Amino acid sequence: MKLGKTVRLTGALxxxxxxxxxxxxxxxxxxxxxxxxxxxxxSYKVGGVTQPNIGSSSTGNTSGAGTSTDFKVDTKxxxxxxxxxxxxxxxxxxxxxxxxxxxxxxxxxxTQGVTFTTIQEASGALGSTxxxxxxxxxxxxxxxxxxxxxxxxxxxxVSATDTASSIPQLxxxxxxxxxxxxxxxxxxxxxxxxxxxxxxxxxxxxASATYGTAPGANITTDDSGxxxxxxxxxxxxxxxxxxxxxSGTDASHDGKSSVRDVYIVKSAxxxxxxxxxxxxxxxxxxxxxAIPGAVVQxxxxxxxxxxxxxxxxxxxxxxxxxxxxxxGTSGTGTLAVTTPGVNSGTQFSCPDGSxxxxxxxxxxxxxxxxxxxxxxxxxxLSNIYLAPGDTTSIVYTVTIN
Length: 401
What we know:
- The chain is mainly beta.
- The chain has strands spanning about 35-40, 40, 45, 50, 55, 70, 75, 80-85, 90, 100-105, 110-120, 145-150, 165-170, 175-185, 195-205, 235, 255-265, 270-280, 295-305, 310-320, 325, 335-340, 350, 355-360, 365-370, 380-385, 390-400.
């Protein structure tokens, strides 16, 4: 029986069939739109006689070299955001330009634009969800959180040059530093915590890579639910779900990446107390009373709590002469001040109608006293420095008219 010259290959390859597969390995991601070609070659014998090789084709080849089976690499869309801060970022009440720092990386295989939003996490959000090193529970929102992209550097925020709010083009494998810059309300106190999230959204690349130009539109849908088409380039979100940002609901395959960072307020805890005692009265009685002619003493105490996390600096005090009184006795008085680290820690005086400055030893500063000079009938002190646990006292007397 004469054998036909055509051999049709179906199912599993028979023993003796040799496949030659061609592929390239690389550590870099294969670029979107790359055409990958593959050609299998089959050799065989009939009745012990070697037959011509047959090359494969996508539709089934019966003779000759065949044609390669090609497909295009789809676009992997994967922008990641990580916090550069490894612990709560210390800020002060009424501070402007409070900075949180992040790194945004394109882990996909095509150049993309990136846009940003911020989320002020709800009260009670745990700072620890931002990662190791973060502590505290959110109890306030900073004012005006704004995103800025670093202009060609990976360091600290520079307000004069880091002005863009989006990335027009981010190449595969490339990273850019991004900041959230906020103002801390002046009503916040020591230990207050604000949890902020930076959300990066993948976008089509802009027309230019120039810093400050705009990216294209956000990419909000992908082809994961569509049939694969070998000859076209499809868009696939590759991000995983995250507990970061979106109040903990950053879903998988949404084209976003988010991460939290934390502000913690570091502040002095000042308590200002003013007490009054009657030193003498015209009656000469053992028990003194505040009648006309009586001399009373005011004691003002400024204390920074031991539990405070930072010092208070440049403390100033003004205290006007009370109505219906005159300074001290016979219209003269002396202001006595005791404050840590100044004049060897001893009390110093500032006579009525004078100014006095006493030397402080580091980290304490020189303290100035102005008694009824610059501002009439007013006590003025300036430049007091109180570390946690420190106390300053100011004592002066007045006579009731």
